[in-house]
Structures are given as structure tokens and as C-alpha cells.
């Protein structure tokens, strides 16, 4: 055997340590950017995941709001296999039917608010596209400033990080994009002050209708309306990041439809594809300023991703399905209110099936839940997120509530 290969393989066996919980990867193979739980999942069905040793977990993370139809959804499996048998990828030098169909669906669902789509591969990329769109819009009008919210999350690339209002993510990387200004989320006076001072120079404002990663914090309708008015009066674009809260998660297809505020640009990803990597940047006529050569993506809008996203969107956007999301939300929040009444949690926030339980030390509870084979994810400094698949059944919600009651009882 070639000496290098031999060394490589013995090195490999050193870094894969088998533990009682499964296989733990050493730091040499995958960069340690995530604090991973010591488990490896091999299969799943609906809200359930099975690890490589056969243990079953209830999954209330859904790949962080991605698996909107649960694991191994027949809708997704069918769309994937059917499309794979036709054509997986062609360049955007040509048209493909799944891309056209998905674009038409997403625009039709916007109730006339949005006009054009650009497809990409992730939420961050949708935000990067939005940043370029806003910069181009601003450049022609001598408006350099991009405004973003404190406590927001828009992704980890250089551009998206520049408008992510959390020091812990920004600080390690030094200078980011220039001309980005931050305001406090839901602080109407602060927003008015900023527009009085800099309004003429503001190209766009970025915000999440519900801050997800920041702690499941809803934009107040009053703040949303003020934001919309100030943007309109000052010829600035309003960008809604619906990467987490969009695609049916709050009970309307777009979260702005629940909020009652019409943005100029919407960024989508996560639940859009139900598990395949796809993102979308949607814009109204005013904001749709890209021309030939301004932006691109090799994979963006490829037939496989669009075929699957189209099938997912077809299901998720049905009136009955969205009504179901609202009903299940009601059932779940009734149960959460009980936990509040019993003093087990301090409160809860959110809409639809993007809910957050307010507790001290959320990561401690996430760890304890993991030991009880319940997958949860924290958000902000005091919140545990619940992000079930949107097609979770009411029996499953009942069983989740029992697990939560048990979690907070056992551990108090
Ligand atoms: C997850 C998330 C992103 C980043 O999306 P990726 O697909 O991880 O690139 C951006 N904005 C919001 C609101 C998100 O929740």
C-alpha cells in the first residue's frame, strides 16, 4: 500500500471515536463550527428520527424549520425521484419547466405584492442577492445606507453578517460591509429618529417579521406599519427576511400576510424546499432592478430543487393545510399556557408553528430534552424554539406536550 494512503487511513481511524452514544467525529475531519450533539441520524419518518443505534427521537427542530412535511415525506420522495428520472440539472443559460412553475406559484401566492423571483441555494444567498439588489437600487439614487435590526439573524457570509445585529457573530471578523446602520427592533422612536437624520440616504431596511434565531420575537404590527410608511416616504426598499418564518410556518404562506405589511423584497429558504437546498429572492416591480449579468448562480433554480419545492409548495399553500397550521398552533399554545400556569416555563412567544418557550438557561433544557430523546433548539438568551413539521398531527402535539411536561417536571 502506498505510504501516504496508509497514513491517511490510520489517521482516519484515530479521529473517529466510537462512544456509547454513537460515532463522534474528531476535529480533523469537519471544521468545529457547530456544537454538535453526540448522535448520528440514519433515517426518519414524520416527526421521528432514528439514530445509527436504533434509538428513536421526537424531532421538534425539523432541520431548523426546514422539514415542513416531516422526514421521508412521500410528497418529497415522489417529486425527487420523478424529477431525477427526467433531468437533475441544466444551466440557467436555458429554461427549465420546474423553475418556471415554482416562480409562477410563488408570485401567485403573494397576492400581487411580488413580481419577480431569483432562485439560489440557501437563505444566506437570498440575503446576499437582496443586498446587491438594494445596493444597485441605492447607487442610482445616491443612497448608500442599509439599515438592519438589533438582534437579527440573516446569515454568515460577509454581506449577510454585516446586517446581522448580534455582536457574537460579527466581532470575530473585523471590518464588514460599510454603510450598514443598526436600529433597535420594535423601537418606533429610534426608527423615526434615524429616518429624520439619514432618511434621504437610506436605500433599504432589512427585518424579520419574526426574529427566529434572536429568540422568536414578533415585529409589532404598529412598528411594521411605521417601517413601511417611512420606507415609502423616503424611497427606501423594505426587505423582509422570511427564511425562517415564511413558507406557511405562521399559518399564511408569507409571514407578511399575517403581519399585514407589504414588503418590496422577500427572502425565502428553509421550508421552501422541505429539505432540498433552495432559496428564493422575490421582488416587486420597483425593487426588481437586476439586469442581464448582474447576478447568477450555477445551481440556483435547478430542475431537481424546483421540482421538489414546487411539490412542497403545492401542499403547504393549500388553504386547508394553512388552516391546519393555525389550528395546531392553537392546540400547542393552549398546552404551553398550561406550562406557564404551572410555573414550569415563564412564557411563550411566536405565531403558527414558530413558537418559543421562555426559560432560564435554554441550552441546559435542550441538553436534558436530548437525554429524553426529544430534539429542541434554543434561540436568543432565554428561549427554546419549537419548530415541528407543519403537518404534525394533533395526537403528536398531545404527545409533545406530555414530553414537555415530563421534561420540566423531572428536572425541577
Ligand atoms: C437560517 C436563516 C438564514 C440563513 O439561511 P441559510 O439557509 O442557513 O443560509 C437567514 N435568515 C434567517 C431569518 C434564518 O433563519
Describe this structure in words.
Mean pLDDT is 94; it is low at 1-23. The strands form five sheets. A seven-stranded mixed β-sheet has the order 6-14-13-12-9-7-8, with helices on both faces. The protein has a four-stranded mixed β-sheet with strand order 3-4-5-17. It starts with a helix and ends with a helix. It is of the alpha/beta class. 46% of the residues are buried. Helix 4 runs parallel beside helix 11 (303-316) and helix 12 (319-341) packs parallel to helix 14. The chain has helices at 3-15, 62-65, 74-86, 97-108, 123-139, 158-162, 167-170, 188-198, 221-233, 255-259, 303-316, 319-341, 362-371, 394-410; strands at residues 16-19, 22-25, 41-45, 48-51, 56-59, 116-120, 145-149, 180-183, 202-207, 210-211, 217-218, 237-241, 265-268, 279-283, 347-351, 354-358, 374-375, 377-379, 383-386. Strand 18 and strand 19 (383-386) form a beta hairpin. It contains 14 helices and 19 strands. It is globular and about 60 Å long. The structure holds pyridoxal-5'-phosphate (PLP). Pyridoxal-5'-phosphate (PLP) binds at residues 122-124, 127, 153-155, 208, 212-213, 241, 243-244, 269-270.
Short note summarizing the structure:
The protein has 14 helices and 19 strands. It has helices spanning 3-15, 62-65, 74-86, 97-108, 123-139, 158-162, 167-170, 188-198, 221-233, 255-259, 303-316, 319-341, 362-371, 394-410; strands at 16-19, 22-25, 41-45, 48-51, 56-59, 116-120, 145-149, 180-183, 202-207, 210-211, 217-218, 237-241, 265-268, 279-283, 347-351, 354-358, 374-375, 377-379, 383-386.
Amino acid at each position: 500500500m502506498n505510504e501516504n494512503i496508509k497514513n491517511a487511513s490510520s489517521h482516519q481511524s484515530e479521529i473517529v471515536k466510537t462512544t456509547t452514544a454513537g460515532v463522534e467525529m474528531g476535529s480533523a475531519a469537519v471544521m468545529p463550527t457547530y456544537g454538535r450533539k453526540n448522535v448520528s441520524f440514519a433515517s426518519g419518518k414524520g416527526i421521528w428520527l432514528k439514530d445509527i443505534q436504533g434509538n428513536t427521537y421526537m424531532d421538534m427542530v425539523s432541520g431548523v424549520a426546514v422539514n415542513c412535511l416531516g422526514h421521508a415525506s412521500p410528497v418529497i420522495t415522489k417529486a425527487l425521484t420523478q424529477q431525477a428520472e427526467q433531468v437533475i440539472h441544466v444551466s440557467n443559460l436555458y429554461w427549465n419547466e420546474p423553475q418556471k412553475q415554482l416562480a409562477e406559484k410563488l408570485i401567485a401566492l403573494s397576492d400581487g405584492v411580488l413580481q419577480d423571483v431569483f432562485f439560489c441555494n440557501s437563505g444566506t444567498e437570498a440575503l446576499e442577492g437582496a443586498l446587491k439588489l438594494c445596493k444597485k437600487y441605492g447607487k442610482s439614487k445616491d443612497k448608500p445606507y442599509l439599515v438592519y435590526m438589533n438582534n437579527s439573524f440573516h446569515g454568515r457570509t460577509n454581506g449577510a453578517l454585516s446586517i446581522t445585529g448580534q455582536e457574537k457573530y460579527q466581532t470575530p471578523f473585523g471590518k464588514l460591509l460599510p454603510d450598514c446602520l443598526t436600529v433597535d427592533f420594535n423601537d418606533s422612536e429610534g426608527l423615526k429618529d434615524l429616518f429624520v437624520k439619514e432618511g434621504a440616504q437610506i436605500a433599504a431596511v432589512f427585518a424579520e417579521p419574526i426574529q427566529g434565531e434572536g429568540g422568536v420575537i414578533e415585529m409589532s404590527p404598529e412598528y411594521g406599519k411605521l417601517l413601511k410608511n417611512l420606507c415609502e416616504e423616503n424611497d427606501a426598499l423594505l426587505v423582509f427576511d422570511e427564511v425562517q418564518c415564511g413558507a406557511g410556518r405562521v399559518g399564511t404562506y408569507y409571514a407578511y400576510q399575517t403581519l399585514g405589511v407589504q414588503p418590496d423584497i422577500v427572502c425565502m429558504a428553509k421550508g421552501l424546499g422541505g429539505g432540498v437546498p433552495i432559496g428564493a429572492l422575490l421582488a416587486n416591480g420597483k425593487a426588481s432592478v437586476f439586469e442581464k449579468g448582474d447576478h447568477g448562480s450555477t445551481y440556483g433554480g435547478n430542475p431537481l430543487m424546483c421540482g421538489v419545492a414546487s411539490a412542497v409548495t403545492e401542499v403547504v399553500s393549500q388553504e386547508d393545510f394553512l388552516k391546519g397550521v393555525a389550528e395546531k398552533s392553537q392546540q400547542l399554545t393552549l398546552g404551553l399556557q398550561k406550562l406557564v400556569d404551572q410555573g414550569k416555563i415563564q412564557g411563550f412567544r411566536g405565531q403558527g408553528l414558530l413558537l418559543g418557550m421562555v426559560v432560564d438557561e435554554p441550552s441546559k433544557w435542550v441538553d436534558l430534552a436530548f437525554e429524553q430523546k426529544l430534539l429542541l433548539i434554543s434561540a436568543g438568551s432565554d428561549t427554546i424554539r419549537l419548530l415541528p413539521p407543519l403537518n404534525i398531527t394533533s395526537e403528536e402535539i398531545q404527545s409533545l406536550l406530555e414530553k414537555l411536561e415530563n421534561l420540566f417536571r423531572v428536572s425541577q
